[in-house]
């Protein structure tokens, strides 16, 4: 769950797809309004913890054993960028750095760092890490 202000985003992970829901608190009526904002499908099954929210933005990293992608417009549609995996082996997991500038992916027995550019919507392998 990612929260910003009076609304929150919830990623519901299924076997090969994710549905994103926006939950908004309606102050006057003291109730919650729930609406689906987007859905994304993957060719391979998602990892058990295959959805990881960016620490400060409406951005979601999605992982399968072979692929990684980043959904960057989850409140409107399923625009995404594929992460160009540099390394061999299966993907085991991922996390964002505390400031959200990098996505670190465990591939095989190594960690690979990708720099997230939120303006250009790109994730490039870090060459100095």
Account of the 3D structure:
It is a single chain. With 129 residues, the protein is mostly beta strands. It has no helices and twelve strands. A four-stranded antiparallel sheet has the order 1-2-3-4, with no helix packed on it. It has a four-stranded antiparallel sheet with strand order 5-6-7-8, with no helix packed on it. A hairpin with a 6-residue loop joins strand 5 and strand 6. The relative contact order is 0.15. The mean pLDDT is 90.
- Number of extended strands: 12
- Average of pLDDT: 90
What does the largest sheet look like? 4 strands, antiparallel
Radius of gyration: 15 Å
> What is the 3D shape?
globular
Helicity, in percent? under 10%
Q: How are helices and strands ordered from N to C? A: EEEEEEEEEEEE
Number of helices: 0
Based on secondary structure, the structural category is mainly beta
From the N-terminal CA to the C-terminal CA, the straight-line distance is 29 Å
Order of neighbouring strands in the sheet with most strands: 1-2-3-4
- Stretches where pLDDT is under 50 for at least 5 consecutive residues are none
Query: Beta-sheet strand percentage?
Result: over 45%
